[in-house]
């Protein structure tokens, strides 16, 4: 039996027995298959995954080392979306396996997949601080952009990974005001998604304008108000001294957005504590109460009407 006949055995997804054993961590079967000399370690299934890709993704370090050291598996083979084993290790936070791959000397810690993502993009997106530390120690660019202009910092801020954010800020090489593909800066992304600790860390750098507007015209305060993140709203109004009446997209204030989305507690804070102007109009001449009425938030609208 030759390698060409044993490799393509018809398993779901075009996988070979070696793929299946590597994925589930069955090292005894992996050893038996490799010992025959009749398998192809780098054979790809229909998703372009090699056994190494699957072992890395599932965190089976012993199998990874066996494939690399004893059977010369290719650590730079491209899987789906142009990802390598190194990207998979970074994405899944397998720091020991990541280090094993780096130590082969055959992979680049700055390699990009077909979308321009580096391993650091994946580690930052999923909040894997240990892998992030390893990459930064290896000297990768912490501000590398993918094909859309997004950086690892955008990913970490957007998903609230405060420890990774702290590591990236500490490099002193990250542009904290760089806008992502949607025209939003990291502060806006963190505020909109309710990541208070990330917002706090960015503000504490004292290197950004907390009232800066994104491509669409909104500020971080608008993002926090729209989604009702009261603690972040307080940080921005009380600590960063952003005006509660700052205009954003379509001339709307944070109060307009809070009212439109029925964020009653946020509306109360903006009106009673931040002293927002309930009579402020957007570009269509509408006050916040009208927007609340349009969406059926009648209690909020009534409270606002009382203050006009």
What does this structure look like?
This protein has three domains: 108 residues, Ankyrin repeat-containing domain (Serine Threonine Protein Phosphatase 5, Tetratricopeptide repeat, Alpha Horseshoe), CATH 1.25.40; 91 residues, Alpha Horseshoe (Serine Threonine Protein Phosphatase 5, Tetratricopeptide repeat), CATH 1.25.40.20; 98 residues, Serine Threonine Protein Phosphatase 5, Tetratricopeptide repeat (Alpha Horseshoe). The relative contact order is 0.06. The chain starts with a helix and ends with a helix. The radius of gyration is 25 Å and the shape is elongated. It has 19 helices and no strands. 50% of the residues lie in helices and 0% in strands. α8 runs antiparallel to α9. With 308 residues, the chain is mainly α.
Task: Write a concise keyword list for the protein shown above.
3 domains, mainly alpha, disordered N terminus, Serine Threonine Protein Phosphatase 5, Tetratricopeptide repeat, single chain, 19 helices, 308 residues
Output the CATH topology of the largest domain.
Serine Threonine Protein Phosphatase 5, Tetratricopeptide repeat
Output the radius of gyration: 25 Å
**Name of the CATH homologous superfamily of the largest domain:** Ankyrin repeat-containing domain
Largest sheet: none
Terminal CA distance:
86 Å
Shape: elongated
Average predicted confidence as pLDDT: 94
Kindly state the percentage of residues in helix: 40-55%
Number of helices: 19
CATH class of the largest domain: Mainly Alpha
The CATH architecture of the largest domain would be: Alpha Horseshoe
Backbone structural class: mainly alpha
Number of strands: 0
Q: List low-pLDDT spans.
A: 1-7
Secondary-structure element string: HHHHHHHHHHHHHHHHHHH
InterPro entries: Ank_Repeat/CDKN_Inhibitor, Ankyrin_rpt, Ankyrin_rpt-contain_sf
Protein name: Ankyrin repeat protein
Keywords: ANK repeat, Repeat
Organism: Acrodontium crateriforme
């Amino acid at each position: 039996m030759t390698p060409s006949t044993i490799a393509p055995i018809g398993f779901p997804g075009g996988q070979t027995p070696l793929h299946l054993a590597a994925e589930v961590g069955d090292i005894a079967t992996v050893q038996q298959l490799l010992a025959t000399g009749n398998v192809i370690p780098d054979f790809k299934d229909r998703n372009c995954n090699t056994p190494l890709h699957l072992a890395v993704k599932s965190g089976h370090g012993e199998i990874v080392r066996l494939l690399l050291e004893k059977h010369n598996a290719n650590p730079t083979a491209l899987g789906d979306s142009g990802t390598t084993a190194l990207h998979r290790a970074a994405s899944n936070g397998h720091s020991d396996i990541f280090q094993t791959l780096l130590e082969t000397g055959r992979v680049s810690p700055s390699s990009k997949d077909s979308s321009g993502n580096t391993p650091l993009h994946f580690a930052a997106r999923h909040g894997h601080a240990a892998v992030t530390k390893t990459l930064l120690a290896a000297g990768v660019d912490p501000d590398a952009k993918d094909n859309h202009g997004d950086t690892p910092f955008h990913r970490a801020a957007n998903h609230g990974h405060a420890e990774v954010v702290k590591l990236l800020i500490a490099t002193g090489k990250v542009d904290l005001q760089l806008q992502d593909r949607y025209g939003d800066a990291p502060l806006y992304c963190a505020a909109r998604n309710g990541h208070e600790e990330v917002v706090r860390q960015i503000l504490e750098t004292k290197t950004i304008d907390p009232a800066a507007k994104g491509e669409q015209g909104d500020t971080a305060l608008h993002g926090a108000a729209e989604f009702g993140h009261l603690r972040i709203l307080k940080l921005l109004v009380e600590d960063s001294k952003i005006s509660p009446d700052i205009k954003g997209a379509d001339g709307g204030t944070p109060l307009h957005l809070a009212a439109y989305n029925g964020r009653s507690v946020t509306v109360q804070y903006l009106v009673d504590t931040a002293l927002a102007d309930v009579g402020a109009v957007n570009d269509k001449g509408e006050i916040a109460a009208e927007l609340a009425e349009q969406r059926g938030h009648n209690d909020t609208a009534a409270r606002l009407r009382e203050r006009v």
